[in-house]
Design a protein that fits this description.
The complex is a heterodimer of chains A (656) and B (305).
Chain A lengths: L6 H4 L3 H17 E5 L2 H4 L2 H11 L3 H8 L3 H15 L33 H8 L5 H9 L8 H11 L4 E5 L2 E4 H17 L7 E4 L5 H12 L3 E4 L6 H11 L3 E5 L7 H8 L8 E5 L7 E2 H7 L16 E7 L7 E6 H15 L6 E4 L6 H13 L2 E4 L5 H11 L3 E4 L1 H9 L2 H4 L7 E4 L6 H10 L4 E8 L3 E5 L6 H6 L3 E2 L3 E6 L12 E7 L10 H7 L6 E9 L5 E6 L4 E3 L2 E3 L2 H8 L4 E11 L3 E10 L8 H10 L10 E4 L21
Parallel strand pairs in A: 2-12, 4-5, 4-6, 6-7, 7-8, 11-12, 11-13, 13-14, 14-15, 25-26
Antiparallel strand pairs in A: 2-3, 9-10, 15-16, 16-17, 18-19, 19-20, 20-21, 22-23, 24-25
Helix pairs in contact in A: 2-6, 5-6, 9-10, 9-16, 10-11, 10-14, 15-16
Chain B lengths: L8 H14 L4 E5 L1 H7 L6 H4 L5 E8 L3 H4 L3 H4 L5 H20 L3 E3 L17 H7 L4 E2 L6 E3 L3 E10 L17 H10 L3 H5 L5 E5 L5 E7 H6 L7 H10 L3 H9 L1 H12 L10 H5 L11 H14 L1
Antiparallel strand pairs in B: 1-2, 2-6, 3-6, 4-5, 5-6, 7-8
Helix pairs in contact in B: 1-6, 11-12, 12-13
The chains are: A alpha/beta (656), B alpha+beta (305).
Bound molecules: iron/sulfur cluster (SF4) (2 copies).
């Protein structure tokens, strides 16, 4: 309405606006052009000639166009409103006070960065209990830590100190920061933006750390893929985490990951870049070139992340149907690492070696702890007993992150006695049930090294550990006490706390705990209690001093030397095998790896029993990772079943 | 009521302009009514407002303090009550003329024409000031500049008292020599270069004078610090496709400020972004545009006396 009239009264239609909107807009004073200085000079001929260029009144426009004045008024006002871009003045927020507009530096508001849909979905998964969050901040547990900040701090405070030690060569914090800036620049140009997921399947090489920190610098999220994973698992993960880039080796043990991922691209529309670690692969970026030759990220180009941003997306057990994706932000993991460093006695002078792969949170925990204090990270690309022993002897780490399986292997090959392990002051064993005798044996071998045990999960990082000052009995027989900021409780089937010594389910809560699985309401429902405790699925007892011993597992997971996996995808494939009726994979104890997978099967009527080798060949043909292959086959006449015909795995007994 | 012939128009004019200066105007003059009537479009001529008007007095007050120009752009808009100082003087001047000379006078309404929709003023104060010789059109969207007083805010008084008109300024201070040099090297003058929406383009002639001035007022108006425009918020709310967007349109950090300000009655309604003037060597740095320099000049003059 204008001048008390409505559009209907003045006869303005959408068609009329479409016809005259633009010309009315232009003929009015919205655009003004003046030639010379006619008014000041009272140059009447020019004043007359330029009237139209300087903008006409509505009446003048009406006269020219054959419209009524009111029609022009309506058309002009509607057109002005429709063209008017709101929020534009926000650019003034960055100007003035000495700062001037520069076209080349200004991004129009509409072109400002926005998170992708999948990034927003991931961010939506970060929902913490507000009261607990407030408490964590109040207690100083959750702070403004981010890995890029820690990197910048060490690069400034100890530029020449070693950050990474690999094969006897050190990379200083300054060099590391430079490599990270270059890779971040390259990834940014390749289309990686804040909130995006970058998947990485890399051994513990310097490039892993560089990639991890570069992804973090962009505010993006790293999702690791275990080294044994092959095309089927990788595809499932990339489909689930919606990674925009995948960093994978050019050459794998039995297949060529970069080529395999390139071949998947047609089915993974969001995957923009495949980055090969190693030799050049047609169609893929080369990680080494990106790190060494790219221009560094322009600091102003991408806002660094903040502590509440997600930065890690890890998968627990299994890659099939409903994967359990564990998101973490810097708050949870870096608080846990920062608070943990002094508990483990790690300082800037230490050299931390992880025998565990960085694709696991336990391996990454060593990175986080080292970065919390500025300690050097000694790298062992892939564990073999001989390489671990040689690396310790050569690079002289002071702290070792290791799994019982690793040390069991060293013991089996008698490598500790043959190498100089004297640099070790502290060792953390974690990843699977730790045989007490292995702890005793290790402590006996390494007189100056505090052997400790740690229990954690992808959902928590370091939740329980023994401290270097604890007696060897405690370290051998328990996973220790909660890390700072962590609460644990052991409860019976009804959720009541168990008295000391009684077995129950271990539950965890605290500033380290992930907020819940991404987009998996069923798993979240099942995994959290109403008051925010996480049901770990592990069975435990606690002694009177609060030391917790892990006694078993209530969840269906195989833990093969620290690599946990849910065998369901393998069972699904076995169930589809022409000779097999039903299958169930259960853990069988193993002296070195802790557990291995054993397949129980029943046969289809009239079918002959397959051999283990035949089944393995069949599974490999379906792109199942080697580590998930059953290592024993037991054919049974029938499965123990619940009334609802679910297999009761607990009743399957290994023969002999 | 007195008749014109009882009054010495030259003395009256001197007294009126003196009044304006005493009350704080940096410059004041009388515009040629016939010229205004000829240039202003119908409906916006002084006689459309005051049929028996004989003279149009234009006055200008100084812009911001030097301190204000140093603040971030987002805050500069808050120093925008400068124009009300000009209006106050004009308002007083209208009373002064009626009381002293007995002729009907009016403080010219500076606002938008309620009959003409947005962006259309009742009268062009700029035209009055230009013809009164207290400012010349610049390449910055025709903002008037004065070689001594720089960038001013203008107000006008209409009166039935006939006064001898002044002439427009003989020279245009814009572009300043440094602007010409910049234009010769990059094709833009400072106001053009630093306008956040690049709504100014133009050409400087071989003679170093303005050749063409182009101004995209639609774009400039988007830069008005319009956190306080209710209709914009409402338009956004109407355009919103989701609840969240609608909530943002009405209550996001920018917009929620509006409701607070409405309830607390604080703030003006609009402010231009002023970046072109901030960068202009004349607007804020002309000898007497800068209140710091003006003070020095006044103190020096007082000492001489
Ligand atoms: S006020 Fe701002 S938007 Fe308008 S012309 Fe000047 S600098 Fe450009
Ligand atoms: S900066 Fe000022 S003097 Fe220079 S061209 Fe622009 S308006 Fe004219």
């Amino acid at each position: 309405m204008a001048r008390g009239l409505t559009r209907e009264q003045v006869g303005v239609t959408e068609e009329m606006i479409a016809t005259f909107g633009d010309i009315v807009f232009r003929m009015s004073h919205n655009y003004q052009e003046r030639t010379g200085d006619p008014v000041r000079k009272l140059d009447w001929a020019e004043i007359e000639r330029q009237k139209e260029d300087m903008g006409l009144t509505d009446q003048q426009i009406a006269d020219k166009l054959g419209l009524t004045r009111n029609q022009v008024l309506f058309i002009r006002t509607i057109e002005e409103r429709r063209r008017f871009r709101t929020g534009h003045h926000a650019r003034l927020l960055e100007l003035g006070g000495g700062k001037r507009f520069r076209a080349e530096r200004m991004t129009p508001a509409l072109d400002h960065f926005r998170y992708s849909e999948s990034a927003l979905a991931l961010r939506a998964a970060l929902r913490f209990d507000p009261e607990r969050a407030r408490e964590y901040v109040r207690r100083g547990w959750w702070r403004d830590d981010t890995l890029p900040k820690w990197l910048a701090r060490h690069a400034a405070e100890r530029p020449e100190a070693p950050a990474l030690i690999h094969a006897g060569r050190a990379i200083s914090w300054k060099e590391l920061a430079e490599k990270v800036a270059r890779l971040a620049g390259a990834l940014h140009r390749a289309g990686v933006a804040a909130g995006d997921v970058v998947a990485a399947q890399l051994p513990n090489v310097p490039e892993f750390v560089v990639a991890y920190l570069a992804v973090c610098r962009l505010g993006a999220v790293l999702s690791t893929m275990h080294m044994p994973y092959r095309a089927a698992e990788i595809e499932n993960l990339l489909a689930h985490n919606k990674a925009v880039a995948a960093i994978v080796p050019s050459e794998g043990k039995e297949f060529r990951p970069a080529e395999a991922v390139l071949a998947l691209r047609a089915r993974l529309p969001q995957l923009k870049a495949v980055i090969a670690h190693g030799a050049k692969i047609e169609g893929a970026f080369v990680l080494g070139e990106m790190i060494d030759q790219s221009p560094p990220l322009d600091d102003d180009a991408v806002t660094p992340p903040v502590a509440a941003d997600p930065f890690l997306l890890l998968y627990t057990s299994g890659t099939t149907a409903a994967p359990k994706a564990v998101p973490h932000n810097y708050h949870t993991l870096l608080a846990n690492a920062r608070l943990g460093a002094p508990e483990h006695g790690i300082t800037a002078g230490d050299r931390v070696l992880s025998a565990a792969p960085f694709t696991h949170l336990f391996g990454l925990y060593s990175v986080h702890v080292a970065m919390a204090v500025g300690a050097a990270m000694v790298l062992l690309p892939a564990f073999t007993p001989a390489d671990l022993a040689a690396t310790i002897a050569r690079d002289k780490p002071t702290a070792l992150w290791t799994a019982p399986a690793h040390f069991a292997a060293l013991r089996a090959q008698d490598l500790v006695a043959k190498h100089d392990f004297s640099s070790l002051k502290m060792m953390i064993m974690s990843g699977s049930a730790c045989p007490p005798d292995l702890v005793h044996w290790t402590a006996a071998q390494l007189a100056n090294c505090a052997v400790t045990q740690l229990w954690g999960m992808t959902e928590t990082q370091g939740a329980l550990y023994t401290r270097p000052g604890d007696s060897i009995e405690i370290a051998a027989n328990s996973a220790g006490r909660p890390s700072p900021g962590t609460e644990v409780r052991i409860v019976d089937a009804e959720g009541r706390p168990c008295p000391p010594g009684e077995e129950g389910e271990l539950q965890v809560r605290g500033c380290l705990l992930f907020p819940g699985f991404v987009n998996n309401a069923a798993a979240n429902e099942a995994s959290f209690t109403a008051d925010g405790w996480y049901r770990t699925g592990d069975l435990a007892t606690a002694d009177a001093a609060g030391n917790v011993a892990i006694t078993g597992r209530s969840k269906d997971v195989i833990n093969r030397g620290g690599v946990k996996f849910n065998p369901r995808d393998v069972e699904d494939l076995l169930d589809a095998h022409p000779q097999i009726l039903q299958s169930a994979i259960v853990p069988m104890p193993d002296r070195v790896l802790g557990e291995r997978a054993c397949a129980f099967v029943t046969l289809r009527p009239g079918a002959a029993a397959p051999t283990l080798d035949e089944l393995c060949a069949y599974l490999l043909g379906k792109s199942i990772a080697k580590l998930k292959l059953p290592e024993r086959l037991v054919v049974v006449a029938e499965m123990p079943l619940t009334p609802t015909r679910k297999i009761i795995k607990g009743k399957l007994r290994l023969p002999g | 009521m007195k008749r014109s012939r009882d009054i010495d128009p030259i003395a009256a004019k001197a007294a009126i302009l003196d009044y304006c200066r005493r009350k704080g105007a940096l410059a004041a003059g009388v515009a040629d009514l016939a010229a205004i009537e000829r240039i202003a479009p119908p409906g916006h001529r002084p006689k459309d407002l005051m049929p028996r008007v004989k003279s149009v007095i234009a006055l200008g007050v100084g812009g911001q303090t030097q301190g204000a120009w140093t603040v971030p752009a987002k805050a500069l808009g808050y120093f925008g009550s400068t124009e009300t100082r000009a209006y106050k003087i004009a308002y007083g001047c209208a009373f002064f003329i009626e009381q002293k000379f007995g002729f009907r006078s009016v403080y010219c309404p500076p606002d938008m024409d309620p009959d003409g929709g947005p962006r259309v003023p009742l009268q062009s104060l700029k035209l009055h000031a230009e013809l009164a010789g207290i400012g010349a059109r610049s390449l910055a969207g025709d903002i008037l500049l004065h070689p001594e007083y720089g960038y001013m805010y203008f107000a006008s008084v209409f009166t039935e008292l006939e006064l001898p008109p002044d002439q427009p300024m003989a020279d245009n201070p814009c572009p300043a020599p440094s602007c010409v040099a910049m234009y010769r090297s990059i094709g833009q003058t400072p106001c053009m270069k630093f306008c956040p929406v690049q709504c100014l383009t133009g050409e400087v002639g071989e003679d170093g004078k303005q050749k063409v001035m182009r101004y995209d007022m639609a774009a400039c108006s988007e830069m008005s610090q319009q956190y306080e425009t209710v209709p914009t918020r409402i338009v956004e709310a109407i355009r919103a496709e989701t609840e969240a967007e609608r909530e943002d349109a009405l209550f996001d950090p920018d917009n929620k400020m509006l409701w607070y300000k409405v309830s607390a009655g604080s703030g003006g309604w609009f402010a231009q972004c002023f970046e072109c003037m901030r960068a202009c060597p004349i607007a804020t740095k002309a000898p007497l545009a800068d209140p710091l320099l003006r003070g020095q000049a006044q103190r020096a003059a007082a000492e001489k006396k």
